[in-house]
Every structure is written in structure tokens, then in C-alpha cells.
Write a structure and sequence with these properties.
Blueprint (H helix, E strand, L loop, with lengths): L3 E2 L3 H10 L1 E4 L3 E7 L6 E6 L6 H18 L6 E7 L8 H15 L1
Parallel strand pairs: 1-4, 4-5
Antiparallel strand pairs: 2-3, 3-5
Length: about 110
Amino acid sequence: MVYMRLKKSSDFSRVYKRGKSYADKYLVLYYLPNNSGETRVGVSVSKKVGKSVVRNRVKRLIKEAFRLNANLENHYDIVFIARVRANNAAYPTIEKSMNFLLKKLR
């Protein structure tokens, strides 16, 4: 299934302000139901996580884990925020964290 990306700052702000959230040690998930007919996903990784190479690696891990594991019936705007602990995390750890958060969302 193909998911659209959240790109605009206003979209991220809307999800943060009006949406709900779940969190664990590695990721924070903000979500807001939408009526657009598709699920849109955004990823945010702060400079606290590490330099650009580390941040981009964490983003790639999050996007791939979402691509492989998201089976959502409803349509949402979703934002994943990486916590500082995610900088050393391997793919299975990120995937497990994401599955935990998506299970709460369902």
C-alpha cells in the first residue's frame, strides 16, 4: 500500500495541536483522523538525535518499518518523532517500537 507524505509545516502543526499521541522509549506517534481518503505520514528527527547522517538513517528506518507494518483500516495523518535513544537503535528495535504504537492506534 502506498502512503502519502506530510510535507507542510502547517500539516505537522495541525496534527500536533488537534491530534492525540502515544509514546514509548524510541518513538512518539501523533495521529489525527482525516477525510482525504488516504493515510499521510511525516517523520521528524531533532538535531538532538545526532548529526545529519544519523538523523537520515533513523528516518529511513522509521519509513521502512511503517511501509512494511502499517495495516490501517481508517485514514490518518500520522507524525512519528524519533527520541534521542533511537540514534543507536537497530531496525528490529525501531520496528518493534512502531508495531507497539500502531497496535495502540488500531
